[in-house]
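Figure 3 (text version): structure tokens given as input.
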């Protein structure tokens, strides 16, 4: 990973001159959380060529093969954004990966609420947002993004559920171009959230999400929370939470995410 190239690719963004590149770390999220607790400014970005203990959601790990994927995390300090609005940042990160990947590779991904990116039924990107709040205020948020870019294969346990941009496109991809276009797209999303062109934060993103996600309405899903239940997705509420119509009535998915029914 060429620090100079990454720095020039990100000039003028929130990440400008705040890039740290490593050959191998345990987890870029762990680094970013530690740095944020020590006062790192907004936009501080950690990028690694490999992770030895990549973190996924729900206590899972993240397969972080050396030299092929993008593993990055950054610190945000969204002024005035209260904890319950932080879901927008997560959704914005998913939308940014969708747009950046399409610009860099031509691949149209599907956003599985809140922020997994799939092609068909296979996942190539996961996002882990970790936040620290003080009362209602978000002190900082760390957004970690893992993208399978040039993986040619996966361990057997991931084979059925994971893919990479290289596998989908049938040719190798430029990792730094993907990084640049994803993070530039995030920079745009973030500015729109903080200074909405109209209405409240997230309103405009809410309008766009159904165009990049087949999961938001009319999809039969399993929700692995509150004991687990099945239903059909029925759009997002005004805060960006997913609604699911079940035999017992409408329910709101609060955390985790959704899956195809078992
Ligand atoms: C998921 O479970 O889908 C989220 C995976 C997030 C993985 C990324 S890789 C870069 C960053 N550092 C981590 O330890 N995790 C995130």
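Below: residues designed for each position.
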């Amino acid at each position: 990973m060429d620090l100079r190239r990454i720095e020039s690719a990100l000039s003028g963004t929130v990440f400008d001159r705040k890039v740290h590149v490593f050959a191998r770390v345990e987890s870029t999220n762990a680094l970013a959380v530690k740095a944020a607790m020590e006062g790192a400014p907004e936009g501080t970005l950690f990028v690694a060529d490999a992770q030895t203990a990549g973190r996924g959601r729900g206590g899972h790990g993240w397969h972080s093969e050396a030299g092929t994927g993008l593993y990055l995390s950054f610190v945000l300090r969204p002024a005035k954004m209260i904890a319950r609005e932080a879901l927008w940042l997560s959704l914005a990160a998913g939308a940014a990966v969708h747009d950046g990947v399409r610009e860099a590779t031509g691949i149209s991904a599907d956003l599985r609420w809140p922020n997994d990116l799939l092609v068909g039924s296979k996942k190539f990107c996961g996002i882990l947002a970790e936040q620290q709040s003080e009362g209602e205020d978000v002190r900082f948020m760390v957004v970690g993004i893992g993208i399978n870019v040039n993986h040619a294969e996966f361990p057997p346990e991931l084979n059925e559920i994971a893919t990479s941009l290289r596998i989908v496109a049938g040719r190798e991809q430029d990792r730094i171009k993907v990084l640049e276009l994803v993070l530039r797209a995030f920079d745009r999303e973030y500015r729109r959230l903080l200074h909405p062109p109209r209405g409240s934060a997230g309103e405009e993103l809410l309008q766009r999400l159904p165009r990049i996600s087949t999961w938001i309405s009319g999809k039969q899903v399993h929700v692995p929370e509150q004991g687990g239940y099945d239903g059909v997705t029925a759009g997002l509420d005004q805060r960006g939470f997913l609604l699911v119509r079940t035999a017992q009535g409408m329910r709101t998915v609060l955390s985790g995410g959704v899956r195809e029914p078992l």
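The two ends are 40 Å apart (CA to CA).
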